Amino acid sequence: MKLGHWLVTSALVSVVSLARAEDFFGAVQTEGDSEDIGSADRVSEDDSTGSSSWVYRGWLQQQAAYGYRTPPAGFSRDQASLTRTETELYGELDWKSAHWRLRLAGSIVHDWLPQWSSAYSFSEEQEKARRWHFEVADSYVSWQDGDWWIKGGYQTLAWGEAESLKVIDVLSRRDQRWPGQEDLQNTRLPVPAVLFNWRNALDLVLLFKTPTDRRPVAYEEFDPYISLRSGDSRADPSLHHRRGERPGWALRWQQRWRGVDAQFMIADVYSFETAPRAFVLEHNEANSQANSPLNNDDLPRLGNVELSPWRQQVVGLGVQAVRGNWLFRSEQAWHRRVRLPLDDALAPWAERDQWRGMAGADYNGFHNLSLSGELSWQYTSNWKRDLERDREETGAAIRARYTLLNQSLNLEGFVLRLNENGGNLLRLSADWDWSDQLGLSLTLVEYSADREQLIYPYRHNDTLLLGMTWGW
Amino acid sequence: MKTALVFVLGFTLSSLGSAGAHADQLSAREIMEKADTRYTGDSSRSDATLVLIDRRNRERVRDIRLYTLEETGVEKSISFFLSPTDVAGTAYMNYDYDAERDDDSWLYLPALKQVRRIAAGDKSSSFMGSDFTYSDINGINTDWYDYRVLQSDTVGGADAWLIESTPKAEFADKVATETGYEKSHAWIRKDNFVQVQSKIWVSRGNRIKYFSATELEEIDGIWTPMRLQMLTARNGEQEHASVFQFSQVMYNEHSDASLFTTQAMQRGVQ
C-alpha cells in the first residue's frame, strides 16, 4: 500500500515537474509584448529606407559631492563640507543622411552650492565658475563615402588606453577640476579638429587653437597653483594662460590582424597641460603682509606668471593582442621637447625628451567580472639633478568591475599610482540602474601622497559622491 | 556551426527542398547538419528588442540594430545599441572565423569615444547580460558532438525530431570551456529544419536553459523566427529570462564590407 502510494505520488510529482519544465518553453510575458519595438520611437520610420532621420538622447543629472576631510590651510574650503551640488542637463541630437551626419551636443550646468551653503566662503571667481553655463560636448559634421570619412568640429580624439600615464593619448583634453572624480564621459573633453580617415586605416588630424585642460579656479580644492597664492587674491600673482596658436597635426596608421591590433602614430601638437614660461617679480610694500610661502619680507613680490602649453613631437606605437580570455596591450612613445618642473619653483620649466611606455592586460574569464591592470614608466633623457622629477619614474593602475542583478548594479574598484611621483588614488563606485531611465551612483575617492609627491597638497580632498541620472 | 545571433533567423530553401520524402531517413547528425548549414542570407539587417527579465519579473529593455555579412571564412556581425540612454551609441562588432581560432571582437563605448578590442575567448559568458551566451550567438562546431534521435514530437502543431547532443569524449573539455553546457535536447521541425526548442543542461549551478524560437515568418524565402527566448531555471524555478523580439528583418539587402569596421562603430547606427 505504502509502495503503491509512493509510486502514485512519484508519478504525480514527475508529471507536475514535467509540466513545469514544459512551461519554461512557453512565451514569457514582457511589458513590451503589446508595444511596438522601442527603437521605432527613437528612429524615424524613414530610416529603414536610407533617407534622413533624427535621433536624440539626453539626461538630467544631479550630483552632490562631500569632502569629508579638512584640506590644509590655503584652500577656500577649511572644513569637511559639501564641495558641489551640481545639476547638469545634457542633450544630444543626431541627424543623418546617406553620406552626411551631424551631431549637436552639450550641457547646461549649475552648481547650487554657493547659494545653498555658507559652510565656507567662495570668491567671486569661484561663484562665477559655478553659475549656469553651457559646455559643448562632441558636436560635429561628418561625411563618409567609399574609403573616405571626414569629420570636423568639436570632437574627442581618444588614441590611447593607458590610465596611469599619457603615452600616445596626446590629442585629448582633460578636466582637471576634480581629478579622479569625473564621470566616464568626461574623462576626455572634445577639441576643435578635423579628422580625415582613409580606408579605416590612416587618420590625419588637424587641430586648431587647441584649448588647454580645464583647470579649477583659484583656491578651489584642486587649484594647481595654490603654492603661488597668498591667501589674499588682491596680493596674488596674476596668472596669464596662453593657448597654442599654431595648428597641430597628427597622423596614425592602424592595422588589424586576427587577434592583434596595432597603431603607429606621429604628432606635432601642443600639450594640454601648461608650464610656467616666465615669472615677473615686483617690489610691493603689501608683500610684507602676504602669507604666501613664496613671499618673504626680503624678496620682491611675484607679480605675473605666464603659463602656456608646450609644443611637442610624439612618435608612438600601440598594440593589443588577444589570447583566450586575456587581452594584452602596450603603448610606447618618444616625446620630444616635454616641459618638466625644476627644483627651483620660480624657474621656467626645462625642456627634455622622454620615453614613455605602458604594458597591461585585461582578463575576462570570470563570470560578470572583468579585471585589468597596467604598469607604466617614463625615462627622461639628458636628465639633470636640478629637475624636480627623477630620471626614471613608474606608475600603475588596477581596475576590477563586477556586474550583477540583471545588469543593473555595477561595482567598480580602481587603484591608480600616478606616474611622475604623483601619489595614489583609490576609487570605489557602485552604479545602480533603478530602471532603464533612472540611475543612482555612489562613489568614494581617496587620495594619498607623501610629502614630496605631486598631490600632497590635495591629499585631504577625499570625497564621497552621490549622483542621480534620469535619461531619455 | 557558424551562425550569428541570427542563428535561428533562417533556414535554407535547400533544406526545405530536402525535407520532404527523405526526411525520416536522415540520421540525427544529418538533421543537425542540415539545420546548421542552412542558408541565412549572405547578409542581413534587423532591429531587435532585447528584454532581460529577472526572477522578480523586473525588465531591462535594450533596442539593437543588427547587421551580418558572410564572407569567405568569416562571418561578420555588428550590433548598434539604440536605447536605453545609458547604452545608446554602444556598438559591438564580432568576426567569427570558420577556422578553430578565437573570434575578433571590438566594443565602442560612446562615453569613452573609443573602440577597444576585447577578449572574446570565454564564449560561455553572457551576451550583453542576457541568458544567451556568445557560443549561442556565434555558434559552435557540430563535429564536437554525438547525436541521436530520441523521438518524434510535436511543437506548436508541427512535427519535429527531438535530438540529443552530447560532447564526444575527446571534445568534452573543449565543449565545457567554450559553451559551459553538458548536453542538450533540440527540437528540429521536420518541414523546414528550424530549431524551435532546446533544453540545455548547464555545467555549473544545477541550471537548465530552455530555448524557444517562435513567430516564424518566411522572409525573402528564409524561415525566420521573430521571437527568440532563452530562460534559465535553477532547481526548477525560473531564475532569469531573455527575449529577442525581431522586426524589420531583411536579407541580402547590403554587401558593404565597410559597415563592419571600427570606423563604422564610431560613426554610429547605420
3D structure, described in words:
The complex is a heterodimer of chains A (472) and B (270). The radius of gyration of chain A is 27 Å and the shape is globular. Chain A contains 4 helices and 22 strands. Chain A has an 18-stranded antiparallel barrel. Chain A has 472 residues and is mainly beta. In chain A, a hairpin with a 3-residue loop joins strand 7 and strand 8. Chain A has helices at residues 2-23, 39-42, 113-116, 124-130, and strands spanning 53-67, 81-96, 100-111, 133-136, 139-145, 148-155, 191-198, 202-207, 238-241, 248-257, 260-270, 275-282, 301-308, 311-323, 326-340, 350-366, 369-380, 392-404, 409-418, 423-433, 438-448, 463-471. The longest helix of chain A has 22 residues, at 2-23. By secondary structure, chain B is mainly β. Chain B has a 13-stranded antiparallel sheet. The longest helix of chain B is centred in the first third of the chain and has 9 residues, at 28-36. Classes of the chains: A mainly beta (472), B mainly beta (270). The interface between A and B is large, with 73 and 68 residues.
Backbone shape of chain A: globular
Largest interface, with Cβ-Cβ < 8 Å?
A: A-B, 73 and 68 residues
pLDDT < 50 stretches of chain B? 1-21
Number of strands of chain B: 13
- What kind of assembly state do the chains in view correspond to? heterodimer
Overall body shape of chain B: globular
What percentage of residues of chain A falls in helices of 4 or more residues? Answer: under 10%
DSSP helical segment count of chain B: 5
Approximate helicity band of chain B: 10-25%
> How large is the radius of gyration of chain A?
27 Å
Distance between the termini of chain B: 28 Å
Relative strand content of chain A: over 45%
Q: Largest sheet of chain A at a glance?
A: 18 strands, antiparallel, barrel
What ranges of chain A have pLDDT less than 50 throughout 5 or more consecutive residues? 1-20, 34-51, 287-294
Terminal CA distance of chain A reads 66 Å
Task: Give the SSE string of chain A.
Answer: HHEEEHHEEEEEEEEEEEEEEEEEEE
Mean pLDDT of chain B: 85
Q: Helix count of chain A?
A: 4
